[in-house]
Specification:
single chain, alpha/beta
């Protein structure tokens, strides 16, 4: 019955696992779900493709949210309505400072709220911060997976392509990476008392001084080094969820 499904994502109102990995690409959601035991597709409506299964005994939801904060926040809200309380965003990003290589992971401590949607919900002074336990779980999982990783603040920006307006510069601010959806998740989580964090695979350099288009041929996220990073990041995300669940059991 349609009343048993939430209106935007068409996910069931009840029955989803409470721990979720959320990704942009529906195909990546399927790839992450393939790592689970007993994975099943729960729904697929618009950009929202949702799976359930288990990782080392932990029931897990894997869902895609599409590109950009406005659409993504609709999924985050409906997953929370359906009972999900722990979210890890697993995505790709561009490096914003030297020393962060292609295929490396960036674990987000916080995000700049340039996402195009949360500014319409809250004053700009409200922060977008990861749950500390999510940061620590992701860092531990990355270390145990021997995955090259970094921690830092990321820039969530709604516009992917350059336009006529000059790009505001965060030069000197020490931002680690730029992506498109994380701050929408972090703000949603803070407002609703959820646990949330994010880990991003670097698929290129975005800071002007780092880009060498002549050598690299320009932006290309489909290289083998990025694919290897995505494979590591999927494992890190799922293992971090398990570590977070263990923490919940210990503190309950």
């Amino acid at each position: 019955m349609t009343q048993d499904l939430l209106p935007i994502s068409r996910i069931p109102r009840t029955g989803l696992p409470a721990h979720a990995v959320v990704v942009g690409d529906p195909a990546r959601a399927a790839a992450v779900a393939a790592l689970l035991d007993g994975a099943e597709e729960v729904s697929h409506h618009r950009e929202y493709r949702v799976f359930s299964g288990s990782w080392k005994g932990l029931p897990v939801t894997v869902a895609s949210h599409g590109v950009g904060g406005p659409g993504a926040i609709l999924l985050f809200q409906e997953l929370a309505d359906a009972g999900v309380h722990t979210f890890l965003r697993f995505g790709t990003a561009g490096a914003m400072k030297p020393g962060i290589g292609d295929g490396d992971l960036v674990i987000a401590e916080a995000a700049v709220r340039d996402d195009g949607v949360t500014q319409q919900l809250l004053p700009p002074e409200y922060p977008a911060v990861s749950s500390p336990e999510a940061v620590f779980a992701l860092q531990r999982a990355a270390r145990e997976a021997d995955a090259p990783h970094h921690r830092g603040i990321v820039w969530t920006r709604a516009a992917f392509q350059p336009g006529l307006l000059p790009l505001f510069s965060y030069d000197g601010a020490g931002l680690a990476a730029i992506e498109m959806e994380l701050s929408a998740l972090l703000v949603t989580a803070s407002l609703r008392g959820l646990v949330a964090g994010g880990v991003l695979v670097i698929d290129g350099a975005n800071a002007d001084e780092l880009v060498d288009a002549e050598t690299t041929g320009g932006y290309d996220p489909h290289r083998e080094v990025v694919a290897a990073g995505v494979e590591r990041g999927a494992i890190v995300s799922l293992e971090a969820l398990r570590l977070l669940a263990e923490t919940e059991e210990f503190t309950a």
